[in-house]
Specification:
By secondary structure, the chain is an alpha+beta fold. It contains 17 helices and 16 strands. About 1% of the residues have low confidence.
C-alpha cells in the first residue's frame, strides 16, 4: 500500500491545485470531485494520509488568506472547500471506527534519539533510501543539500517578470515546501520516529523530488546565464549532466536493495514451504500479528490459519487459544512485530504455560515456533532429589505418554526448585539419545520458553517447566534414553549433577522412550 499511498498523495494534491484554477460557483462542485475521491481513497489506503490532508488544509488556508485568491470569490471558495472536506470525511465514515481503534492503540516510538542524527536519517531515507548507510550515500546527500535550497527559490526566469508572476512562483515553492516539511514535523511531534516507521515518509517523496527537480532546473539556468550561452541544446545537456551527477551516487542503494541479504524481505514463501513439508493432520497455524494474513496466505492456503487478536487482553487470549489447543495436536506460531501486535507477549506467555514448545527458527524478522499439545501435569510422575550445581534442584519430571511415533513431540515437564538465590542465567537441554549414546533429538531453552530466566527464581519456589522434543520423521523405531542437563549461557559449561547426594556427571538420565511406527 505504500506505493499507492505515495501515488494518492501526489494525485490528491495535483487535483486540489488544478481545482483552484477554476472560477468557483456555489453550485459547481465538479472540479473538486477528483480531489474528493483521491483524498478519500488515500484515507482508506493508509493511516499516514491524514498528514497530507492537513497539508492541503494548511496550504488552502494560507492561499485563502492571501491576495492570490481573488477577494470576489473568497467566501465561495471557503464554502466549496468546506464541502469538499466534509465529503471526504463522509466517504470515510464506514471505516472511521476501525481507524480510531487502530490508531489510538499505537504505542509511541519513544524519544530515544538525537534530533540532529534523526533529521540526517530522514534526509538519507528520502535521498537514497533505506538500503544505503549515511557514510556510503554522502555524495548524494551533499548533492541534494545543494539542490534543495536552490529548488526553494522561484523559477529564475520569472523573478524579473511581472510582479504577479513572481508572486505565483513564490507561492508554488512555498506550497511544495509545506508539502515536504509539515508531515516530517508531525512525525516528530507525534513521536512516530523510529526505523520501522520511516516508510511513512513515502507520503512526502513527491514533494522532495519536485524540489530537487526544481533545483536542477534553476541550477541549469544559473549555469547558462553565467556562461552567456544561447545554444538551444545547452539547457538539455546541463540538465542531463546535473541529473547524472545526482543519480550515480544512489546506484549502490539499488545494488544493496536487490543483492544484499541484509535488506531482503522476510521470506514467507520459504516459511510456508517449510511448514507444508512437515504439516500433518491435526496441525494448526497461528499468526501472532494479524496483518501477516495477506502475505502468508499468498503462499499458503488459508486452511487452519488463525490470526490472533491485535493487542489482546488476557481474556481475549484465553478465548482465542483455548479452542485451538483443544482442536489441534500441534501448533505453528508465526511471531512478527511483537512490540506492536502483542507488546505484553500474552500469546507467547499463555502458550508457554499450556503447551510444549518444541523449537523455533528465524526467517528474517519472522520467528516460527512449534508447540506440541498434550495434558499438563501439575505434579511429578517421578520424584527426584537431584541438584544442578548448588542452587538449582530438580524435584521430578513427567513425560506424558509411553510410546511415540516418528514426527511426534515428546511432552516433558520438569519441576525445578530454587534452593538459593541464582545470579547467573542458565539454559536447559533436554536430549534423546539412541542405544549408542548418540544424539537424535533435543530441545534447548531458558526455562519457560525464555520467559522465566533462572535469575528471576525465588528461593524455595517450584516451577513447572515444559519442553517439547520433536522426533525426526525418519527416526528408526527402537528404545531411546531421555536426559536433561543445565548449562551456563555465557560459557556453555554444564552444571555438575548430583542425584541423592551422589555425583551423576554433567547430565541426568530421566527415563527410557519407546519409538514405534504408527
Amino acid at each position: 500500500m505504500y506505493a499507492l499511498l505515495a501515488a494518492l498523495s501526489a494525485a490528491s494534491t495535483f487535483f486540489a491545485i488544478r481545482a483552484s484554477r477554476f472560477t468557483p460557483h456555489a453550485s459547481r462542485f465538479l472540479p473538486l470531485a477528483p480531489y474528493v475521491l483521491t483524498a478519500a481513497a488515500g484515507l482508506y489506503t493508509h493511516y499516514a494520509f491524514p498528514f497530507i490532508l492537513l497539508v492541503h488544509n494548511v496550504v488552502f488556508g494560507l492561499w485563502w488568506l492571501t491576495t492570490t485568491c481573488r477577494s470576489a470569490h473568497r467566501w465561495r471558495w471557503l464554502a466549496l472547500w468546506a464541502r469538499a472536506q466534509t465529503a471526504v470525511v463522509v466517504l470515510y465514515l464506514p471505516w472511521l471506527p476501525v481507524a480510531l481503534k487502530s490508531v489510538t492503540g499505537w504505542s509511541s516510538a519513544g524519544r530515544a534519539y538525537e534530533l540532529g542524527p534523526a533529521l540526517l536519517n530522514v534526509r538519507r531515507v528520502l535521498n537514497v533510501g533505506l538500503p544505503l548507510p549515511v557514510a556510503e550515500g554522502r555524495a548524494a546527500l551533499i548533492g541534494a543539500g545543494i539542490l534543495l535550497p536552490i529548488g526553494l527559490w522561484p523559477a529564475l526566469s520569472r523573478v524579473e517578470g511581472p510582479r504577479r508572476t513572481a508572486r505565483a512562483g513564490w507561492w508554488s515553492v512555498t506550497a511544495t515546501a509545506l508539502y515536504l516539511l509539515l508531515p516530517i514535523t508531525l512525525i516528530f511531534a507525534f513521536d512516530l520516529y523510529k526505523s520501522t516507521w520511516l516508510k511513512f515518509l513515502v507520503v512526502v517523496l513527491p514533494s522532495f523530488h519536485l524540489l530537487l527537480a526544481h533545483g536542477i532546473e534553476n541550477l541549469t539556468r544559473l549555469v547558462i546565464r553565467g556562461s552567456g550561452s544561447l545554444n538551444a541544446r545547452c539547457p538539455m545537456s546541463v540538465r542531463f549532466l546535473v541529473i547524472l551527477l545526482f543519480a550515480v551516487p544512489t546506484l549502490p542503494s539499488l545494488r544493496n536493495l536487490y543483492f544484499d541479504p541484509a535488506y531482503a524481505r522476510d521470506d514467507y514463501r520459504r516459511l510456508a514451504a517449510d511448514i507444508s513439508t512437515i504439516l500433518r493432520s491435526g496441525d494448526g497455524i497461528i499468526l501472532d500479528a494479524p496483518n501477516q494474513w495477506e502475505v502468508f496466505t499468498y503462499y499458503y492456503p488459508d486452511r487452519d490459519v488463525h490470526p490472533a487478536p491485535y493487542r489482546p487482553v488476557p481474556d481475549e487470549v484465553e478465548a482465542f487459544l483455548t479452542p485451538l489447543v483443544e482442536r489441534y495436536r500441534r501448533l505453528f506460531v508465526l511471531y512478527w512485530g511483537d512490540a506492536e501486535s502483542d507488546p505484553q507477549r500474552l500469546i507467547e506467555t499463555w502458550l508457554a504455560a499450556h503447551t510444549y514448545q518444541a523449537g523455533d527458527r528465524w526467517y528474517g524478522r519472522v520467528r516460527l515456533a512449534t508447540y506440541g499439545v498434550a495434558p499438563l501435569p501439575d505434579e511429578p510422575a517421578a520424584t527426584l532429589d537431584a541438584r544442578f550445581g548448588e542452587a538449582v534442584g530438580l524435584n521430578g519430571y513427567a513425560l506424558v505418554g509411553e510410546r511415540f511415533a516418528p514426527g511426534d513431540t515428546l511432552p516433558v515437564t520438569l519441576f525445578w526448585k530454587a534452593r538459593s538465590p541464582i545470579t547467573e542465567r542458565y539454559k536447559v537441554t533436554v536430549q534423546l539419545l539412541d542405544g549408542a549414546g548418540q544424539l537424535v533429538a533435543q530441545r534447548d531453552s531458558e526455562p519457560g520458553d525464555g520467559l522465566m530466566p533462572t535469575t528471576t527464581w525465588e528461593p524455595g519456589q517450584i516451577l513447572a517447566d515444559r519442553y517439547g522434543v520433536s522426533l525426526p520423521p525418519d527416526l528408526p523405531p527402537g528404545h531411546y534414553t531421555l536426559i536433561v542437563g543445565l548449562y551456563h549461557i555465557a560459557t556453555g559449561e554444564r552444571s555438575p549433577v548430583t542425584l541423592g547426594g551422589e555425583p551423576s556427571g554433567d547430565h541426568l538420565i530421566l527415563c527410557g522412550v519407546e519409538v514405534v511406527y504408527p
